[in-house]
């Protein structure tokens, strides 16, 4: 379920530096990097460019020998899935600690994949450590590539080898037509279940353990000819509950996921109702100027009559008065109820987010609005709006040329916004205003 881009999976036992390598190749901090085995739990996807060739890189949870622990066994399954879907596998080992029985076990799994496997010996930080590389020839996976992720040594040669191994017929060019959708909300609201339902496969660990999804996971999907990049984020938690630094990184990355998105799905647990955290996520998305959709999940758990849906919608609008523009979709990822609407609405609000209106049509609306309701005045001086122009998209931005910025008032801006929405729509997206003083005479 990819966009036909080469997929490269980074695998290996825990704590060999997979996430550090992933972050260096991605050019930004995406994976959690911490000296604790098992910190990277879900596959994490990002786009990487080398010599104008693009590919998708997957960071995996470390492969452990068979273990009864629910998370470790999930991590093993995730890594196996990543290897199944990858075109090329980067097998990362630790050049400092040397060859281990776990490395041999992973190598045995990889030999059965019949995929190109590039052996990457990490943590070779100086020439004097180069002799450590020879031990790894024993794995029978070809010539090892000595690198230091932390110091960015050897990465160019490694990337050259990666693109040499791309299978023919795959798309390595950048695609600007993708709608990027972040799936956000508090832990256990069902974000991962929604993603898995859309994809029709178990792409993210779904478990009743709150906070299971720590990493933002990128997944490509195509529906009715439109490509989407779905970003499943770690749930935002209250700050008081963030005891460990790992959780702190997750919160930061959830905010970063919103930053990368065109559309933010704010997933609300229907049974639990709207929480303080839902308000926080919505506030971040609104402030960042993102198109937004409220997705009320677990709707199957609610006892309903003919007023339930209307009352719930009204409650959301009352609790989020600054986001009256955002549509509300009621779904159940578990029973598949209305799930087909999620991407449909996301595509619609993305088009509204990128909509442009002509200057003449905009000024007709502003002129009519001013005639119906005069702008505010102060000490005998009245706000004059000479003309307006749309100066941006994603989100739509309007610049109004006026006589005096001091005379602008939020309530009149809200009035103009409502008039613009009445005439042009802009459903699902915030709109922004900028004022410029234009001296006349």
From TrEMBL:
<dbReference type="InterPro" id="IPR015946">
    <property type="entry name" value="KH_dom-like_a/b"/>
</dbReference>
<keyword id="KW-0677">Repeat</keyword>
<dbReference type="InterPro" id="IPR032859">
    <property type="entry name" value="KH_dom-like"/>
</dbReference>
<dbReference type="GO" id="GO:0043022">
    <property type="term" value="F:ribosome binding"/>
</dbReference>
<keyword id="KW-0342">GTP-binding</keyword>
<dbReference type="InterPro" id="IPR031166">
    <property type="entry name" value="G_ENGA"/>
</dbReference>
<comment type="function">
    <text>GTPase that plays an essential role in the late steps of ribosome biogenesis.</text>
</comment>
<protein>
    <recommendedName>
        <fullName>GTPase Der</fullName>
    </recommendedName>
</protein>
<feature type="binding site">
    <location>
        <begin position="59"/>
        <end position="63"/>
    </location>
    <ligand>
        <name>GTP 1</name>
    </ligand>
</feature>
<dbReference type="Pfam" id="PF01926">
    <property type="entry name" value="MMR_HSR1"/>
</dbReference>
<feature type="binding site">
    <location>
        <begin position="297"/>
        <end position="300"/>
    </location>
    <ligand>
        <name>GTP 2</name>
    </ligand>
</feature>
<feature type="binding site">
    <location>
        <begin position="122"/>
        <end position="125"/>
    </location>
    <ligand>
        <name>GTP 1</name>
    </ligand>
</feature>
<dbReference type="InterPro" id="IPR006073">
    <property type="entry name" value="GTP-bd"/>
</dbReference>
<dbReference type="GO" id="GO:0042254">
    <property type="term" value="P:ribosome biogenesis"/>
</dbReference>
<dbReference type="InterPro" id="IPR016484">
    <property type="entry name" value="GTPase_Der"/>
</dbReference>
<feature type="binding site">
    <location>
        <begin position="185"/>
        <end position="192"/>
    </location>
    <ligand>
        <name>GTP 2</name>
    </ligand>
</feature>
<feature type="domain" description="EngA-type G">
    <location>
        <begin position="179"/>
        <end position="354"/>
    </location>
</feature>
<dbReference type="GO" id="GO:0005525">
    <property type="term" value="F:GTP binding"/>
</dbReference>
<dbReference type="InterPro" id="IPR027417">
    <property type="entry name" value="P-loop_NTPase"/>
</dbReference>
<feature type="binding site">
    <location>
        <begin position="12"/>
        <end position="19"/>
    </location>
    <ligand>
        <name>GTP 1</name>
    </ligand>
</feature>
<feature type="binding site">
    <location>
        <begin position="232"/>
        <end position="236"/>
    </location>
    <ligand>
        <name>GTP 2</name>
    </ligand>
</feature>
<comment type="similarity">
    <text>Belongs to the TRAFAC class TrmE-Era-EngA-EngB-Septin-like GTPase superfamily. EngA (Der) GTPase family.</text>
</comment>
<comment type="subunit">
    <text>Associates with the 50S ribosomal subunit.</text>
</comment>
<feature type="domain" description="EngA-type G">
    <location>
        <begin position="6"/>
        <end position="170"/>
    </location>
</feature>
<dbReference type="InterPro" id="IPR005225">
    <property type="entry name" value="Small_GTP-bd"/>
</dbReference>
<keyword id="KW-0547">Nucleotide-binding</keyword>
<dbReference type="Pfam" id="PF14714">
    <property type="entry name" value="KH_dom-like"/>
</dbReference>
<keyword id="KW-0690">Ribosome biogenesis</keyword>
